[in-house]
Design brief:
241 residues, Rossmann fold, 7 strands
Length: 241
């Protein structure tokens, strides 16, 4: 049985991906940082349904935590065939006002941590497929979440660089979700407003995301690609043109 590590796997999109991959026959390592209780509950559920799952704890902003996570996985499962870098931090701020510390925090969790984990996984866990989670606005501009936006643009570049540097042994791709779930604290009103911006005029589903992940895991001749799952929203982005 192959093992997949899903960072941020206890909540939201990460949880949906973890459950889907467990149903697809993977042993899932669910990574958590602060959502320990939710992660433990999910792992218990997956063990009851499928017999295999494990919890991995660590702060992605800490290089030593990333190394410890890989060390634990090496001891417990030996190999991790697939790494899903889904965890992220997301706060509101502006490029004209955010403190540099806020940008650094976003970069650590959303870009540098996944980079460190990817390198270690390839070196020590024989990982051959990496799927990173970006954002459909990576080709546009999210002015209300500037430090998050900058960190995801950095992660976009890292994805393509890793695809070049790790080929031919490792494939590296990305999923860029659009309107799948509203941000925490937002509800139906937010979704209805955002649907008007989307060419397909509707909200996507968690199943759409899982299908994209399946495609990138199973397509052996695809690397360095970003699959936008956003109803065409990225086609309207031209801020940097």
């Amino acid at each position: 049985m192959k093992t997949v590590l899903v960072t941020g796997g206890a909540r939201r999109i990460g949880r949906a991906v973890a459950v889907h991959l467990a149903e697809s026959g993977f042993q899932v390592a669910v990574h958590v940082h602060e959502s320990v209780a939710a992660g433990e509950q999910l792992v218990d559920e997956l063990r009851q349904r499928h017999g295999h799952a494990l919890l991995v704890k660590g702060d992605l902003s800490s290089e030593s935590d990333c190394a410890q996570m890989v060390h634990e996985l090496k001891a417990q499962v030996g190999q991790v065939a697939v790494l899903i870098n889904c965890a992220s931090t997301f706060t509101e701020d502006s490029v004209l006002s955010f403190p540099i510390e806020a940008l650094v925090d976003h970069l650590k969790v959303n870009a540098f941590g996944p980079l460190v984990l990817s390198r270690l996984s390839v070196q020590q866990l024989a990982t051959t497929c990496i799927v990173n989670f970006l954002d459909s606005r990576v080709v546009d501009y999210d002015a209300l979440h500037a430090s998050y936006h900058l960190s995801k643009r950095t992660f976009d570049a890292i994805t393509r660089m890793l695809a070049m540097e790790l080929a031919p042994q490792v494939r590296v791709n990305a999923v860029a979700p659009g309107l799948i779930l509203p941000p925490e604290g937002k509800g139906d009103e937010y979704v209805e407003m955002r649907k008007k911006e989307i060419p397909l005029q509707r909200q996507g589903t968690l199943a759409d995301i899982c299908q994209a992940v399946d495609f990138l895991i199973n397509s052996g001749f695809v690397t360095g690609q970003t699959l936008f799952v956003d109803g065409g929203r990225h086609l309207k982005g031209a801020f940097y043109q």
